[in-house]
Amino acid sequence: MAPITPPAPDNNYLKKIFLHHLTRIYNGKRFLQERTSSLFNLASFKSLELAIGEFGGDVKNQIKRMEAIYKLIGETPSPEVCNPIKSIVRDEFCLDDGQDIPLLNDLDIMLYLQILEHINITSYRMLIMIAKLLKYNEVTQLLTENFDESADNDMLFTLIAKEYITKD
User: Fold this and answer.
1) What are the distances in angstroms from CA 48 to CA 4, 12, 100?
2) Which of 22, 30, 46, 96 is a good FRET partner for 129, with 20 to 30 A between their CA atoms?
3) Distance CA 115, CA 19 (A)
């Protein structure tokens, strides 16, 4: 028996999907923003501190863009009970302050921040697809800017990790 493809959702349903995912990423970014300074304090190398500082600024900008998106579509963010970002970030990624090798904490910080950015990249990609279907042109542009920042942060943490673990 062949799988059945569901019918394409109408615009009202698409907007509900859009709001659901926008709210998840928005609340996740706000939660992350509250914890960026503690991640900064856990970093042991200057280049990682600088990257976390840049990341924190990008999170702040992304939140502002998402707030603009809510205004553009005539909605307000709502609290969400289940947020995957909170589950990943809770307790500073379970990092050990007493690690014998500071590099291990730094690599863990980078790993988890990259995991978060991959979630964001995927979420923004889906939101952009839906925004295009709903003909939210300004929203699409704001989401694209957020997507680009998340992709840039992912690359930045990859480059820093490479710097730490290779001799090049």
Assistant:
1) 48, 43, 18
2) 30
3) 22
Distance CA 151, CA 17 (A): 23
Tell me the C-alpha distance between 61 and 155, whole Å: 18
Whole-number pLDDT of residue 104:
82
Q: What is the pLDDT of residues 66-90, one digit of tens each?
A: 999 999 999 998 886 666 666 666 5
How many residues does the structure list for the chain? Answer: 168
Q: CA dist 154 to 81, 112, 141, 164, 168, Å?
A: 27, 10, 20, 16, 20
What is the secondary structure of the chain as a DSSP string? Answer: -PPPPPPPP-HHHHHHHHHHHHHHHHHHHHHHHHHHHHHHHH--SHHHHHHHHHHHHHHHHHHHHHHHHHHHTT------S--HHHHHHGGGGG--TT-SSHHHHHHHHHHHHHHHHHHHHHHHHHHHHHHHHTT-HHHHHHHHHHHHHHHHHHHHHHHHHHHHH---
For tokens 């680009």, name the residue: 148
What is the Cα–Cα distance from 153 to 48, expressed in whole angstroms? 12
